[in-house]
Design brief:
Order of helices and strands of chain A: HEEHHHHHHHHHHHH
Number of strands of chain A: 2
CATH topology of chain A: MetI-like fold
CATH superfamily of the largest domain in chain B: MetI-like
Oligomer: heterotrimer
Number of domains of chain B: 2
CATH class of chain A: Mainly Alpha
Radius of gyration of chain A: 23 Å
CATH architecture of the largest domain in chain B: Orthogonal Bundle
Largest interface: A-B, 127 and 121 residues
Distance between the termini of chain B: 22 Å
Chains: A mainly alpha, B mainly alpha, C alpha/beta
Radius of gyration of chain B: 24 Å
Largest sheet of chain A: 2 strands, antiparallel
Number of helices of chain A: 13
Strand order of the largest sheet of chain B: 1-2
């Protein structure tokens, strides 16, 4: 690892770190400072210490929201990973031209903005006046009301989140697969390994870094997504799809309780960062 | 395409040398392949139908939007939605957004390469800690929506809001951590012997960076660039909050304008969304070869 | 390899050229004074209100060559919180539109200048009287006038005139809540298989984009209040329970309203209405014109809420947007002069005839009478009459943010989870009080 003089290294890192300091880290520090005040009319007034955080603890429903968030994130990430991995392996086997077409189709939901993509999905597949709903009615089948049942609403939210992000995961995993030299696999074949063994023992370990990257990005983006649940379910029915980002959004823009909204957002940040560190540790990833 | 770069990147020697047919890839059990093909058919339906429906909607006039049952093709197509979108100054938003994305991509790459180079090849105090900080800052950009008001106050205090450099600055910071990660991964696979040889030849670190590392990490830089472009193009929250002047507005808030206080106007909404994905599709079609080979050479190797 | 390098070089060159030609130019400001205004409308937009906005600004700029009005379009749901933050940061626009729910905060924060001082004190007495309305009083505190309404909104029943006519129902004959239910039953259509193809009445109950619940007119008509004087929720009063029971029974018991509406947003509701799936909906006056554009001018009308025998009509929730001048702005005088014109008699005629809004001033109502008499424009009169006689504005002495969401969630709990009406409303009270720290 160590090769050259210390100063040059610092010089090369400095511009990037300075920018991150200015735009990413210090606003969070300012946000923390902001959260220590009583906020009235959108502005900090008296120093309140940890009062905004204490108010979070008083909220008896927050625990359930946290559980739902965890369930939603785990399911969405796991499903996205499995589907993306299967698709990536399959696309990797296709010829160049066909592979390209398939890949473009797979990434479509990812490159459209979340709000528009979710609105369109909801209209076409979920609404009873959409394409699917009209077909169902014409077939004389009673309306399927996915959003009206707590279980199916959550399932739908997970499904749409997977749909939206699977393209991103496929791109990164596919890139990883293309990087595995063909000879590894040929060698394994000669040694008498079956395709499953090749996949589990050779391909998967070589995909460790892209899998880690994809897992982290998927976890964080699902954990922090506000647009998808807001547009798809609005958190309902009842509290069935109410996850943490909606809670933060409501506190900030519906009840205009900026103090506890900021406090909750910062607690979520801390959780996010701990998760990233845990992933890196678990994957025994060398830096 | 996959064979050429490998000459430049010596790989760890495989255990056995066998003649490898060029197209041979990881083999899957036949049944599983079939299952995956079915899965893809479903996915293709899920992906293409909304897009197809969106484009159709953008060509419909108001009374055709909500007929029962929905009309598929038996309507008179109209360009009025596109006309409305363009009349509202949308091409100006596209222009500004292209500018933001280009500047951001350039900024991200210029900053990420030296930083990744230093993280990979140099030793300096707090190197590990700083790198973990970079990795840990990925969530800061993904979850920044929650800190909207404090962020707005902070940036306004610094005088950084509502200027032509506001969004490139913010977007660069958002995308930089990921880019550093991808480029550093790419550098890891470049043998150190190359650096040492260059030093013996009398090259400075800066020359090594520009003459050796830059060409070798070009695919990784391309990949980071494409991911950055897509992320900037679709960014909404900072674009709507940090900018006030109409001439500086990026496209996402402009699209969102059609989901306004008085209801969503599907016609112009889908027309603007259709216009908005065209540049990204073109960029992707051009650069997707790069992204695949780019990540290949880098980060992604285990 | 060579090809790729060429591709890259071409792309890089292309990018540089783009970047150099695309650097956004800052707007030139020679000697003209620039007045910034935040609104959710776009001055380059093409909807009726946006056309009206552009026309009024053009008129003003023509008459005042030294002033340029720059419209800085904002995302509507973030605009008022952002205005408060901008006030704090010293970067607010000269003029901002403020939504009713946040008016109390905007006034309390000291971000809005006193319009009396800026221009109203120069008015003759009858001009002040001309503006008299509940909206005017809402933005008045003591002898100070903090804002003036630009976009009033009256939320009652929007109906399909053609469908009511075909069913032989005269909107004027719907005098009580029972009449409303009877009309809804008559308007509900089933197909041969017994599926409902059109519902009589609907409202959206999603928490996203929530409109005020129909139980509010119901309980207000009974003389009950939605909030206690100390700002705590008063949802589960006997009248509140009766109102909520009426609303949910339309769905559960009488099946004249769709159960899917538990998760409909306001926009979903309008799309259902546009696709012939519902004959009457709870709807605001500000949306009638766009519904008419989809369904035909004569086919969409608005009526007042029914009464309960004691009062002719139950009070409807009114909302909308007020326009204020930033108290710390550098151009308060000029901004005030523009607002004076922007919401004055001359402009309001444009807001009504071009923008399709209902008038706020008594004189405008008279001046546009012939326009309102045109077929399809009756809703303007209904909203105007309702606003003066049967209107209710949310209090601004305390923050009421979240009351619409709380009532909609209670409805979901009743419809989906089978919770009892009273229990659901008490749950909503607890949640609202906790959210607002009361």
């Amino acid at each position: 690892m160590t090769m050259y003089s210390r100063l040059t290294g610092v010089n090369y890192v400095l511009p990037a770190m300075a920018l991150l300091m200015l735009v990413l880290f210090s606003p969070v520090l300012y946000g923390f400072w902001f959260s220590l005040f009583r906020i009235q009319y959108g502005a900090p007034t008296d120093f309140a210490g940890l009062e905004n955080y204490a108010r979070l603890l008083d909220d008896t429903e927050l625990g359930a929201t946290l559980e739902r968030s965890a369930l939603f994130t785990c399911c969405a990430v796991a499903l996205t990973l499995v589907i993306a991995l299967a698709l990536a392996v399959w696309i990797n086997r296709l010829g160049q031209r066909l592979g390209f077409v398939v890949q473009m189709i797979v990434i479509l939901p990812w490159i459209i903005s979340t709000v528009v993509a979710t609105l369109l999905f909801r209209w076409v597949f979920v609404s009873d006046i959409g394409l699917a709903g009209s077909l169902v009615r014409m077939a004389g089948i009673p309306d399927v009301q996915l959003l009206n049942n707590p279980g199916s609403a959550m399932a739908l939210l997970i499904g749409v989140s997977v749909w939206k992000r699977v393209g991103y995961a496929v791109i990164i995993l596919l890139a990883g697969l293309k990087g595995i030299p063909d000879d590894y696999e040929e060698a394994a074949k000669i040694d008498g390994a079956n395709p499953w063994q090749i996949f589990w023992l050779i391909v998967l370990p070589l995909l460790k870094t892209p899998l880690l990257l994809v897992t982290i990005v998927l976890t964080l983006s699902n954990l922090n997504t506000v647009e998808t649940p807001l547009v798809l379910t609005g958190g309902g029915p009842g509290d069935a799809t109410r996850i943490l980002p909606i809670e933060v959004f409501d506190r900030a823009f519906v009840t205009f309780d900026l103090g506890s909204a900021t406090a909750l957002a910062l607690v979520m940040f801390a959780g996010n960062i701990l998760l990233v560190l845990a992933y890196v540790r678990l994957a025994k990833w060398k830096t | 395409m996959s064979a050429a770069p490998s000459r430049l990147h010596p790989r760890p020697a495989p255990r056995d040398h066998v003649a490898v047919p060029a197209r041979s890839r990881i083999a899957l059990p036949g049944l599983l392949g079939l299952v995956i093909a079915c899965l893809f058919t479903v996915l293709a339906g899920l992906n293409l139908l909304p897009l197809f429906w969106g484009v159709l909607t953008s060509l419909k006039s108001q009374p055709d939007l909500f007929r029962t049952p929905p009309v598929l093709l038996n309507f008179v197509p109209t360009a009025e939605n596109y006309q409305r979108v363009i009349d509202s100054g949308f091409l100006g938003n596209i222009r500004v957004s292209v500018f933001y994305c280009v500047v951001t991509v350039a900024g991200v790459l210029v900053l990420a390469l030296p930083a990744a180079y230093a993280f990979d090849r140099f030793d300096f105090p707090l190197r590990r800690a700083l790198f973990m900080l970079v990795v840990a800052s990925i969530p800061l950009s993904l979850g920044a929506a929650a800190l909207l008001i404090p962020n707005y106050l902070y940036f306004t205090r610094l005088g950084l809001t509502n200027a032509w450099f506001t969004l490139p600055l913010i977007y660069t910071a958002y995308q930089l951590p990921m880019a550093i990660w991808i480029v550093k991964g790419s550098l890891e696979s470049i043998p150190r012997e190359l650096d040492e040889a260059a030093i013996i030849d009398g090259a400075s670190h800066f020359q090594i960076l520009t003459r050796v590392m830059l060409p070798l990490t070009r695919p990784a830089l391309g990949a980071a660039g494409v991911l950055t472009f897509v992320a900037c193009w679709n960014e909404f929250v900072a674009g709507s909050v940090m900018i006030d002047t109409p001439d500086l507005r990026p496209i996402q808030p402009a699209i969102y304008n059609f989901i306004g206080y008085f209801g969503r106007e599907w016609g112009p909404l889908t027309a603007s969304a259709t216009l908005a994905i065209l540049p990204i599709l073109i960029a992707f079609a051009l650069l997707s070869r790069l992204i695949v080979s780019g990540l290949t050479k880098g980060s992604v190797k285990g | 390899m060579m090809q790729r390098r060429q591709l890259l070089n071409t792309l890089a060159a292309f990018g540089c050229v783009l970047a150099s030609t695309l650097i956004p130019q800052a707007p030139a400001s020679a000697q003209t004074k620039t007045i910034r205004m935040w609104t959710f409308l776009s001055a380059t937009g093409t909807t009726p209100r946006e056309v009206a906005l552009a026309q009024i600004i053009k008129n003003y700029e023509a008459a005042n060559p030294g002033t340029k009005i720059v419209v800085e379009t904002q995302v509507w749901d973030q605009m008022t919180p952002k205005f408060l933050a901008a006030h704090r940061a010293g970067n607010a626009p000269d003029i901002s539109w403020v939504v009713t729910d946040f008016l109390g905060d905007a006034i309390g924060s000291g971000s809005l200048a006193d319009l009396n001082e800026l221009f109203i004190r120069k008015w003759p007495a009858e001009q002040v009287k001309d503006h008299a309305s509940a909206y005017w009083d809402l933005t008045k505190k003591g002898d100070k006038q903090y804002a003036m309404f630009a976009s009033p909104n009256y939320i009652s029943i929007v109906y399909r005139a053609d469908l009511l006519k075909a069913a032989g129902i005269d909107p004027a004959s719907i005098k009580t809540w029972d009449d409303l239910r009877a009309a809804a039953e008559k308007l509900t259509v089933k197909n041969a298989a017994g599926q409902v193809t059109r519902y009589g009445y609907a409202q959206g109950f999603s928490e996203q984009q929530a409109d005020p619940h129909m139980m509010i007119p119901y309980l207000l008509g009974e003389g009950e209040q939605l909030f206690k004087p100390n700002g705590k929720a008063n949802f589960a009063s006997p009248s509140g329970v009766a109102g909520m029971t009426f609303a949910t029974d339309l769905i559960k018991k009488y099946q004249v309203s769709p159960s899917q509406s538990a998760t409909w947003t306001v926009d979903d509701l309008f799309e259902q209405f546009s696709s012939d799936r519902v004959a009457m909906i709870q709807g605001p006056s500000v949306r009638v014109s766009s519904l008419q554009a989809k369904l035909g001018k004569e086919n969409v009308g608005q009526m007042l809420w029914p009464g309960n025998g004691k009062t002719a009509h139950s009070p409807a929730v009114m909302a909308g947007w007020a326009v204020g001048v930033w108290s710390k702005g550098p151009n308060k005088e000029e901004a005030g002069r523009f607002v004076d014109y922007f919401l004055g008699a001359e402009s309001e005629k444009i807001w009504v005839t071009v923008g399709g809004q209902s008038p706020l001033m008594a004189s405008t109502a008279k001046a546009v009478a012939s326009f309102v008499d045109q077929p399809g424009n009756g809703y303007i009169r209904v909203a105007g009459e309702g606003a003066s006689k049967y209107g209710w504005l949310t209090p601004i002495e305390f923050n009421v943010g979240g009351y619409r969401q709380a009532l909609n969630k209670a409805t979901q709990r009743i419809l989906v989870d089978g919770v009892a009406v009273k229990a659901a409303l008490e749950e909503a009270e607890t949640r609202f009080n906790r959210q607002n720290n009361r």
